[in-house]
Design a protein that fits this description.
- Helix 4 (55-69) packs across helix 5 (81-91).
- The termini are far apart.
- A 7-stranded mixed β-sheet has the order 3-2-1-4-5-7-6, with helices on both faces.
- It has 275 residues and is of the alpha/beta class.
- It has helices spanning 2-13, 18-34, 37-50, 55-69, 81-91, 109-117, 133-137, 145-156, 192-202, 232-242, 257-260; strands at 99-103, 122-127, 162-166, 179-184, 204-216, 246-252, 267-274.
- It folds into 2 domains: 1-34; 36-274, 3-Layer(aba) Sandwich (Rossmann fold), CATH 3.40.50.
Length: 275
Amino acid sequence: MNNLLLKIIRNLIRPHKIPKKIFNKLNYYFNHKKYNQNFFEKEQNDIFKHFGLNREEGIKKLTLIKKDLDFKSRDRGMSSEHEVIFSSLSLSKNKSITDILEIGTFDGFNALLLSNLFPNSNIDTIDLPENDDDFINFYNRKDNISKFIQDRNNILSKNKNINFFPLNSLKLLNHKKKYDLIWIDGAHGYPMVCIDIINSLHILKENGLILCDDVHLNLNQINSDKMYRSIASYETLNELKKQNLINFRLVYKRLNPKRNCIESTRKFIAIALKA
């Protein structure tokens, strides 16, 4: 009831936004109704095959591992096809993955998942130092920062092949270690994600893969920000591809109609490798 009252008050304060909200609701309704999930499932499976991956087998393995790790609380919003990619890669006989870098540790669950999918690999995961303003102020951590850090550290301590470093990813410029797999999931806007992609190319092994989360294709400048939503990663990847420095393909981040039925708000994950 309180939420409904808040919505009514917001609409009364900003009546000029009501027509756009009505349009968005109608647009969502009609696109949701005609959404063909089988079509997107087939397309996604074909993209996986392009990289020599079996998506269906990856899903099976992922389901078993997440059940063992009790990911129920995590799955309310954070799970996406990046986990299926990781799981499928762990089954691939064509890929030898011994060193993994994660840019953007967040709550530690993804590093824990990687450490279980690749038990014989080293997982290096980095995130901003806890006294960094961006670490404190984003992702709703400000009022509960101590508990967030404690919970994250407890997750990271579960497996010995996870190495956490409180490090601004800009400092990867001087990094010497090379990686088979790099997962970019830090700040998604300019300039950070552009620098993360370039730095990752420098520390990627010759046959390694870079995965980049939350790739947007259709945002205008008004809707963009430095942390959550931007076309920065897509534009950077495209420019690198134009110069024959990389090849990349996009996979859908999520396939359920609620998240994927509106083309303009659709999110992707990029899979990139050196050309």
